């Protein structure tokens, strides 16, 4: 198998995105159920995949890994 160096910054931002969006989606006034459209919940994994893709292939900046000299 090929070992690909994953961009740690993208993974960390994707996890933060998942928690923040989940908190936003489940937020509702006390005693009421969240009233969100059906497409709002699939945005959690799709957004995480988009963020990791952008940091792996487009931005290519990793805040957590140091360059070897």
Provide an overview of this structure.
- This protein is mainly α and 69 residues long.
- The chain has helices at 8-26, 43-59.
- Helix 1 runs antiparallel to helix 2 (43-59).
- The chain starts with 7 loop residues before the first helix and ends in a 10-residue tail after the last helix.
- The mean pLDDT is 87.
In short:
The chain has helices at 8-26, 43-59. The chain is mostly helical and 69 residues long.
Measured by DSSP, the beta-strand proportion falls in under 5%
Mean pLDDT: 87
- Please give the largest β-sheet: none
Q: Which runs of at least 5 residues are low in confidence (pLDDT < 50)?
A: none
Task: Output the radius of gyration.
Answer: 16 Å
Give the SSE layout:
Elements: H1 8-26, H2 43-59
Helix pairs in contact: 1-2
Looking at this protein, list some descriptive labels:
single chain, 69 residues, mainly alpha, 2 helices, elongated
